[in-house]
Design goal:
- The structure is a homodimer.
- The first copy, chain A, is α/β, with parallel strands linked by helices.
- Chain A folds into 2 domains: 20-117, RuBisCO large subunit, N-terminal domain (Alpha-Beta Plaits, 2-Layer Sandwich); 126-386, Alpha-Beta Barrel (TIM Barrel), CATH 3.20.20.110.
- Helix content of chain A is 36%, strand content 17%.
- In chain A, the strands form 3 sheets. In chain A, strands 2-3-1-4-10 form a 5-stranded mixed sheet. In chain A, strands 7-6-5-13 form a 4-stranded parallel sheet.
- In chain A, α6 (153-165) packs parallel to α7 (185-203) and α6 (153-165) packs parallel to α14 (366-381).
- Chain A starts with 19 loop residues before the first strand and ends in a 6-residue tail after the last helix.
Chain lengths: 387, 387
């Protein structure tokens, strides 16, 4: 682990492969005392000495190692997978339930045994599947958001058509577009989907429209099927607003089959406090991906948010970390990518990236900007394009 | 607002009553610059100068006031309610969407206009309704959790019966009990509900059993109805695991009619970082209550978690703050309440409190401890009981 606790090696390999392994960075308090508290708090929440022996041995977490200084170090804990059972929400509870109420404890590593990984679908398409769907075998993908809020559905659809016609692969709703009166959800989804379809057909290259799906849990699957029936090519989900399990429910629906973009709005407090919460990559990369996000959006270093390049690298690495049976997801830096710095951004992330460019496309002519962006990315991928 | 930003006066009354009003504490950065960023980031997320005039005026947030020092102050913003529209998740997005990714910004006040309050059911029973249901016109209520995890369903049911027989009003699952093999959900709910029903009948005073309901959103309502059919008298929901909207969906179900306890597991990063997140009372008190929580659990000062008494007072105050059409909720301090300090705890919270006593009941004889706790609370409420 680096000194700021944002990146970390995987837990020691001597651990039993069938246990859930969690590592926390602990600062300013007695690390061993916190470790003892966590292993009980996250399981039995009961006076340890009063619990039956088998519960103390099997249910309570096991301290695998404690490293660092007595008041500034890390602890690695492991749990029997039956403590989670078959419920995805209980995994979150074991990893980050009551311990989320502790100050100065940060989740820095998480390793799921195969028996728990199986609870999660992972990305339905991921990097290889989305490349095939978009007929983009080797280049970075381009995404943008329909905005600003307040624009009528017909105007958003016109914008969507221009963006698709000029080579933007993924045209998504801004995450704040829901069912407002200026652009009611049904009308917006139908019009934008049709505009993207028509533009794609004319251009002879596929683009997808992804409406925002910030609806209550009980409506989630119905709305997703409705979006697909209206022509949506994917879905935008904001787990910080509707829960990470919403991604899993959508990715796990056998009849839906739409790629999912995960947006970080509302999830910030889970990562931005350096001594508390989750390592950025674990929440915005690994956890979203395991639930089923094909594309994981995060604020790009140098944009409107104070994410460092180290943090962005961490998220991208967790989108790509090899995991048995789980495809790689696309890291999607956004939140203020400048057109004039596209080459720098591509140099950082490489080919397997979705560049989410928003407001910058609207400074000047939208069609021209989108077309030039697409051309630049194609040239970067294969310099022969420019000849 | 006090110097630490945890408590705050309500926004100035000169504000239009039909606008959503939000106040943030901002530290270590230029408050005005952050205010300008937030009002755009939370709405159009688009270059301000490129937006049409009516969108700048109607959709973008309005800065109502900026107070304090240039780099350590607070900003009050207001929004047109149509920016939220009719979707509860979009309220969360406007209040705490992209701004959640900002360091050093804390949500310290939130005021919903009537048009947005109407999106939320509030507590179905709240303080008056739960008093009527439990035939407890004036005393504090008692709650406990079935634990430890690993205990078989039959043994948990035996425990539940003892607790109900000895005067515990609300017998809930520990939040980590889900569908594990030691006590499968259906079996546990059926057995515990029956044990509590039988014990209540024998004792001639009502107690309720509240199973944990940490299921995926699409299953939520079905599982809740199943719990009621199995005899559950209420529901335990953990919004930090399944989303705050789960409470609203359950409280708003017209056929369910069960009281809801909200547990803070998983929600900690939203409140425990002093310069970021939400003021404790707003998230764990007001927001949970507006969604429909009848009882809001939080860690008691002096227990296993580092919550100060000031923070606990804030949560209790937000459970009780007068709101049009929204009943008061019960504050429920827990997480390490000691039996020998019950009088101190009652002195702090008064009569309208649910005391959530867990592990302490198990030190010694469970029936004796529960009975003595009930007797002590009755004596405290009406000293004539002890004569």
């Amino acid at each position: 682990m680096t000194s700021d606790g944002t990146a970390g090696a995987r837990p020691p390999s001597r651990l039993s492969p069938d246990r859930l392994v969690v590592r926390y960075r602990v600062r300013g308090v007695d690390v061993r005392q916190v470790a003892e508290a966590i292993r009980v708090e996250q399981t039995i929440e009961f006076p340890y000495e009063l619990a039956p022996a088998w519960i103390r041995e099997t249910i309570v977490g096991r301290i695998e190692s404690i490293d660092g200084d007595p008041d500034d170090g890390s602890v690695t804990l492991s749990y029997h997978p039956d403590v989670v059972g078959q419920e995805p929400a209980q995994l979150l509870n074991v990893v980050w339930g009551n311990v989320s109420l502790f100050e100065n404890v940060r989740l820095v590593d998480l390793s799921l045994p195969d028996s728990l990984l199986r609870l999660f679908p992972g990305p339905r398409l991921g990097v290889p599947g989305l490349r095939a769907l978009l007929r983009a075998p080797d280049r970075p993908l381009l995404a943008t958001a329909l905005k600003p809020m307040g624009t009528a559905a017909a105007d958003l659809a016109r914008m969507a058509g221009i963006l698709a016609a000029n080579g933007i692969d993924l045209v998504k709703d801004d995450q704040g577009l829901t069912d407002q009166r200026w652009a009611p959800w049904d009308e917006r989804v139908a019009r934008c989907a049709e505009a993207v379809r028509a533009a794609s057909e004319r251009a002879g290259r596929p683009s997808l429209y992804l409406p925002a799906l910030n609806f209550p849990g009980p409506q989630l699957l119905d709305r997703a099927h409705r979006a697909r029936d209206l022509g949506a090519g994917g879905l935008l989900v904001v787990p910080g607003l509707v829960g990470y399990d919403a991604i899993r429910a959508l990715a796990g629906d056998p009849d839906l089959g739409l790629p999912i973009m995960a947006h970080p709005a509302g999830a910030g407090s889970g990562v931005v406090n350096p001594a508390q919460g989750w390592r950025h990559g674990l929440l915005l990369g690994l956890f979203a991906r395991v639930q089923g996000a094909d594309v994981c959006i995060f604020p790009h270093a140098g944009g409107r948010f104070a994410f460092s390049q180290q943090v962005c690298d961490d998220i991208a690495a967790e989108c790509r970390r090899p995991l048995p049976g789980i495809a790689a997801a696309w890291p999607a830096p956004g939140g203020g990518i400048a057109l004039e710095r596209i080459d720098d951004t591509l140099a950082v992330y490489g080919r397997d990236v979705v560049l989410l460019v928003g407001g910058a496309l609207h400074r000047g002519d939208l069609a021209t900007n989108a077309g030039q962006l697409r051309a630049r990315v194609e040239e970067w991928t294969d310099p022969a394009h420019s000849e």
